[in-house]
Structure formats: structure tokens, C-alpha cells
Amino acid sequence: GSFSSDEVIRKRLLIDGDGAGDDRRINLLVKSFIKWCNSGSQEEGYTQYQRMLSTLSQCEFSMGKTLLVYDMNLREMENYEKIYKDIENSIAAAHEKISECKKQILQAKRIRKNRQEYDALAKVIQHHPDRHETLKQLEALGKELQNLSHIKENVEDKLELRRKQFHVLLSTIHELQQTLENDEKLSEAEESQETQMEAEAKQ
User: Fold this and answer.
1) What is the pLDDT of residue 105?
2) 52, 36 in Cβ contact below 8 A?
3) Are 56 and 29 in contact (CB under 8 A)?
4) CB count in 10 Å sphere of residue 32
5) Which first-to-last residue range defines the signal peptide (predicted)?
6) Alpha-carbon distance 80 to 88, whole Å?
7) H-only helix segments in 17-130
8) Block means of pLDDT (10 residues each) for the chain, length 203 residues?
9) Cα separation of 170 and 64, whole Å?
């Protein structure tokens, strides 16, 4: 019994929508129409007729209220959609801004790194002589190199001369040695001839 009553109430609430009583009014209107059709006297019929008009007026008012709520919900949905799009646009703009900020941070890091490298190079350059002093040193080194080149040429010329003199000396020694060997052979031949002549004289 209580379960069936609860079930009926639950179903009526589901059918009734937001609980404005439209389903009950329609039932009353149907009952009033049936009573009006079955009314015996004109006074009773007029009373039922007034009740039907009152119920219809309530139904029309409820319907108008429902339409107003529906229009308001539509406008709220449109407003929510607009807010949602605005939020999406704001999120997209925030992402773009974050991306741009990241690019600026990277650029700032590169600029800072370049400045640090420039400062390091400037310190290194400060420890070196200026361009004028460097040119003077280069000029002095060039002169020294030219002088050393002349000295090298002179040494090479002397070395070539000594090489030629040594070659002449070797040739002279060789010729002298050859002459001595020839003289020794000639002396040996003369001694041999004298020995042979002495031997022949003794015979």
C-alpha cells in the first residue's frame, strides 16, 4: 500500500516536470468537463463551466510561466555558450602569451649569453696590446725575419762554397794518391829491371 503510494507520487513528480501541478490541473479539467457534460441543472453547469475556465486560466498561466522559463533557459544556454567561447578564447590567448613569453625568455637568455661572451672577449682583448703596438711588433719581427733570411742565404752560400772546395780537395787527394801509386809502380819496375840487369852482368 505505502509502496504503491510512493510509486504513484514518484511517477506524478516525473510526469509533472518541476512540480507545478500541471498534471493535476489537467485531471481536474477533465473531471470538470465530465461533470459539466453530466450536469443536471443550468446552475450546476455554469459552476462547472467557471471551474473549467479557472482551471484553463491556471493551465495557461502555468504554460506561459513554463515558456518564460524555457526562453530564460535558452538565453542562459546562449550566455553560457558565449562565456564558454570567451573562456576558450581567453585560454587560447593565454597559451599564445605563454608561448610568446617563452620565446622572449629564450631570446633574453641568448642575449645574456652573448653579453657574457662579449665581456669575456673584451677582457681577453684588454690583456693584449693595441693594434698600433701589434703592427710595430709585426714590423720588427718582419725585419728580424728578413735579417735571418739574409744570414741563412750567406750560410748556405758559404756551405756551398765549402762543399765545392771539399770536392776539389777530394779530387786533388784522389789524383795525388793515383800519382803516388803510379810512382810506386814505376819505382818497383825500375828496381826489378836493375836487379835483372845486375844478374845478367854477373853471368
Assistant:
1) 94
2) yes
3) yes
4) 20
5) none
6) 12
7) 22-37, 42-126
8) 53 50 68 75 76 79 85 90 92 92 92 90 76 83 90 91 90 90 84 78 70
9) 140
Q: Which three cell numbers stand for residue 79?
A: 550566455
Residue 80, C-alpha cell as written in the block: 553560457
> How many residues in total does the chain contain?
203
CA–CA dist 90, 87 (Å, integer): 5
The three three-digit cell numbers of residue 172, written as one number: 786533388
| C-alpha–C-alpha distance, residues 177 and 182, integer Å | 9
pLDDT tens-place string over residues 137-168: 888 898 999 999 999 999 999 999 999 998 99
CA 56 vs. chain centroid, Å, equals 73
Q: Residue 14: its pLDDT value, please?
A: 52
- Could you tell me the residue ranges of all domains in the chain? 5-127, 132-202
Rounded CA separation 78/85 (Å): 10
Helix (H, G, I), strand (E, B) or coil at 129: coil
pTM, entire model: 0.36
Among 58, 8, 61, smallest CA distance to 29 is for 58
Neighbours of 1 (CB within 10 A): 5
**Distance in angstroms (rounded) separating the CA atoms of residues 71 and 57:** 21
Identify whether the C-beta of residue 106 lies closer than 8 Å to the C-beta of residue 113. Answer: no
